């Protein structure tokens, strides 16, 4: 196995009194597709937000491609990272949000082009060409000049995926990207993600409540509870033969909640 | 300011009051009236061709002068010892006694500031920062019965509406205002008993004595030539009164 | 000119007397505005166009013109129409009418701020209109109004100096009178400024506290001035 | 009749001064609002404090007091301003302090989600502000700015108390020259209302233009 | 079959240009459990809102227990109903909303007691006793004095159900009562509803995207599209052998969206 692209070592995150991540350690191999599942409030989103540097860990080390994410070397010592270091590290990571977070005042194409032009110094014409390729890939080249408000939820989310891809990150983070969508629109987004998973060697971390999709998509599943990993393994094992009581109870509940047609 | 500076810029900034006949603003916006006319004539002789007049409240004149907003105040700002300490006055220009405007028949029988002080019902209106306010307060009228009136017309209106019982201004101002109002319900008591005759002068900043002295020289010249009388008498002022007294006397008076 | 502490000591009692009038005028004016604004808000909500439309026009007009000129109007022109008000009464009514048009917006925003779901749930519970107002809408609408109303209270307080133009001897007028009498402006004006600053810093802190407890009303810009400016 | 026409001209001259004060005051206030408003959300703590102090001071003291200070006290300290400059300074600083809170509020209202999207796309703080936050925030600010402009217009009336010959002041002059109270005051009430209506219409037009791209996303 | 408790006759509802219900007619038998399904925007919610008199139909007649809902007889003519008539009719109908709409300033118990005391003149003590019974039934008697803000979503929804039951309506309307809940909390609410369906003879209309639940719960399913009924029948028929293309396509999409564990 090659060197891990992401390593968490004893990472804790506390909000005041509340411990959300509790001395958590795990590794992700390059190209791996990882699904994070678990009950509400178990800390799944927080892990993705840490990796995107939207939160800072209270304790522990996060390494991305062998480099510390929140620290930098000064002489021999490790000191908290400054904005420049974070900026350099962030270039490797992309994130897609539950609520899309498109820029409402920019057209679809501008949403996709903005970051490459501003952060990678891409020429506007080149950025636009690449944006059109990506929009084509997510099936939205016809909507390039539409405004986000004119799109359905599923279309918005596909634009958000294209936007994240435009920076060619080596790691993609997906946080419940379908849970804000109408059931009928979920499929089109999942199709795009399936395609991405098949056709690229990006490392992907996925938080979802769609157990069926997690099963098909992931190489490995981590089941979280209260900021700790309760169980991990290949999807078949976790979904068919969960070893832990907590996992079994969770899956039973989700199934009972009606996802069984 | 130095005389030379004013000559160079070609005009002097003067403060005037919004009060006929000391000042009058015609419908076309031009400024006349006894005070600005005299100022214009004197400054012209000093080689300053024009005056730029801004209308100002009485209360704002001395602070405005100190804050260099004007080079001189020519507004019927009567000489009083305290004012003589605050500014440099020219020799006297316009003299007038104090008068009362009140309801026809003078129902409260008010003839002096003392009368106002003694009648607990009587409310007197006076311009804020003007001589009359001070006279009333000094005569012992309590603060809450001295109503500070923002301008002459407000004073007349308030008198008509019964908000004040007497409105005090210099004789000529009151006459002009009452004439404008043209209201038989109002009569004038003039002059107020026991109130001194006051004269104004052009007021300059304390340190601008050179300018003041130059002004005095030319003022004396037009007084001597009779031009002075021609300027102010049409407005009802007496040139004789101004020429028979001096700054020294007025500033010392108590 | 130098700052003169002796002079400060000498004029303090007179300024305090002015401050008393300022406070009285603000309290009365605010009480007037609170009631008058409620009337405006109800009239504007009315389905009767003949009532709601002129009310809206009146409110727009009052909000679009300076309080100072309105005070002149109340004080000098109304008597010609047969209504002579004392300076303080005219000032209180002027402040009250002017700010009433703002408090009306607070009431409106407060009521609009109660989610539609609450009205619908009340209907589903078969409550009558008056029961809905009394038990469901008003209890939820009033609390977030309080900080917004308090903001206007402070704004109004800072606008009382305008009453000097209609001869009310409030703080600013006393200060000007002192300045005119003594030809010293720095001390009285600065003291007035310090007085206003002290009062409004204290009240801003109080409002922050209220907001933390009772929540903020609506989104920014949802009514005309979320924090008021004296005019 | 001619007399009235003449005095009407006088009032209109005052209206010009009022309009000029309002326009310059608004420009200055706008500049201050952005300066202090962005200062309040700055990453640098001393900048935040400075901006907060400015806002609290100018909102805390009455504009009345500020104007008197600018007019009578600043010159004593050696800073000489024309009445117009003093008026613009006081109005601009005062309304700018209120505007700063509008700017800050609008920037904060463009929620966490947009700011996080910017981080995820690796934009710098300045880039996020310029390309993402401000273009959206300005649309949120506009209506309140419109109200602030009207407040500023109304506040110009008090410069008459320091003898700047604005509309209200000219009305006072006309009043003492003619003895009529109703004519000048009713005239200027109407003129003020016209001016504030113009501001309202301008701001609405601007709002429509600026929010066009959003296609109704923020109702 | 007994006389229908609800009848819609040629009911239309338009919002300006938009026709949301298009000359719709159907009947509901007393005690029947009816599920309304269909794509987003097809008008399901609008039907429930009409029955609750939160909307007024543009056209057509709605009858509840043989009486016109939006009309009343004056002499021989039918005239639009006044508030008194509506008030009387509403007493027969209860509704549970997607977002609970609990009164946030009242405690759980007060939420349940308020309407009986105000509209039925119940004595506060009696109302409280009955409220406690209902709260006990939905498993929340321990939370009677909590404020809504202190409850989880599932608990809030169970309180909302108890509140609607407190007025003893003969018809209950449920509009996507679980779709705002975290997946783990869905079960507790559905359990309560199953129990209600089993143990009472109330007529129930249910709008839901949980096909599994609709299947188990309903006696009959109506499938809507664009304000019209496309297909209706017993759940087994609709879900296993839909006859219409539109129904098949809808069910296929919902299934593809991951509800298949
Ligand atoms: N900024 C914050 N301040 C305080 N608490 C927070 C903050 N962000 C998250 N939390 C808390 O941290 C816990 C974990 O949150 P997180 O969003 O990671 O859970 P999750 O596993 O993604 O849950 P869900 O499935 O509901 O999205 C929750 O209890 C949440 O309330
Ligand atoms: N008050 C309203 N004004 C205008 N249009 C409305 C209004 N209420 C509903 N609509 C429109 O009516 C249509 C049907 O809405 P309805 O809420 O009944 O659909 P639904 O079947 O419940 O959909 P969903 O599954 O998304 O809840 C939608 O297109 C909606 O936009
Ligand atoms: Mg989450
Ligand atoms: Mg619906």
UniProtKB/TrEMBL annotation, chains A, E:
Name the chain's protein: Ectoine/hydroxyectoine ABC transporter ATP-binding protein EhuA
**UniProt KW keywords:** Amino-acid transport, ATP-binding, Cell membrane, Membrane, Nucleotide-binding, Transport
Q: Does the keyword Repeat apply?
A: no
- The reply on keyword Membrane is yes
**Where found?**
Cell membrane
The terms describing its cellular component in GO are: plasma membrane
Q: Name the SMART domains on file.
A: AAA
Q: Which family does it belong to?
A: Belongs to the ABC transporter superfamily.
Q: Which GO terms describe its molecular function?
A: ABC-type amino acid transporter activity; ATP binding; ATP hydrolysis activity
User: Where mainly found?
Assistant: membrane
* UniProt-listed SUPFAM superfamilies: P-loop containing nucleoside triphosphate hydrolases
> Domain ABC transporter spans what residues?
6-251
> What topology does it adopt in the membrane?
Peripheral membrane protein
Automatic annotation (TrEMBL), chain C:
List this protein's GO terms for biological process: amino acid transport
PROSITE patterns the record matches? ABC_TM1
Which CDD domains does this one have?
TM_PBP2
For this protein, the record's InterPro entries field holds: AA_ABC_transptr_permease_3TM (IPR010065), ArtM/GltK/GlnP/TcyL/YhdX-like (IPR043429), Ectoine_EhuD (IPR014341), MetI-like (IPR000515), MetI-like_sf (IPR035906)
**Pfam families this protein is in?**
BPD_transp_1 (PF00528)
Q: Its topology with respect to the membrane?
A: Multi-pass membrane protein
Q: Which UniProt keywords apply?
A: Amino-acid transport, Cell membrane, Membrane, Transmembrane, Transmembrane helix, Transport
Record's PANTHER family? Answer: L-CYSTINE TRANSPORT SYSTEM PERMEASE PROTEIN TCYL, MEMBRANE COMPONENT OF AMINO ACID ABC TRANSPORTER
* Protein name, per record: Ectoine/hydroxyectoine ABC transporter permease subunit EhuD
Organism source for this protein? Aureimonas flava
Point out the gene that encodes the protein. Answer: ehuD
TrEMBL record, chain D:
GO molecular function list: transmembrane transporter activity
Q: Where is the ABC transmembrane type-1 domain?
A: 15-204
Where in the cell does this protein reside?
Cell inner membrane; Cell membrane
Listed GO cellular component terms?
ATP-binding cassette (ABC) transporter complex
Task: Give the signal peptide as a residue range, or say none if absent.
Answer: none
Q: Does the record's keyword annotation contain Translocase?
A: no
BP-aspect Gene Ontology terms: amino acid transport
Q: Which CDD domains match?
A: TM_PBP2
> What membrane topology was assigned to this protein in its record?
Multi-pass membrane protein
What keywords were assigned to this record? Answer: Amino-acid transport, Cell membrane, Membrane, Transmembrane, Transmembrane helix, Transport
Where is the chain membrane-spanning? 12-37, 49-74, 182-203
Pfam families per UniProt? BPD_transp_1
* PANTHER family to which the protein is assigned, alphabetical: L-CYSTINE TRANSPORT SYSTEM PERMEASE PROTEIN TCYL, MEMBRANE COMPONENT OF AMINO ACID ABC TRANSPORTER
In terms of NCBIfam families, this protein maps to: ectoine_ehuC (TIGR03004), HEQRo_perm_3TM (TIGR01726)
What family does the entry list?
Belongs to the binding-protein-dependent transport system permease family. HisMQ subfamily.
How is this protein named in the record?
Ectoine/hydroxyectoine ABC transporter permease subunit EhuC
Native species of this protein?
Aureimonas flava
Could you tell me the gene encoding this protein? Answer: ehuC
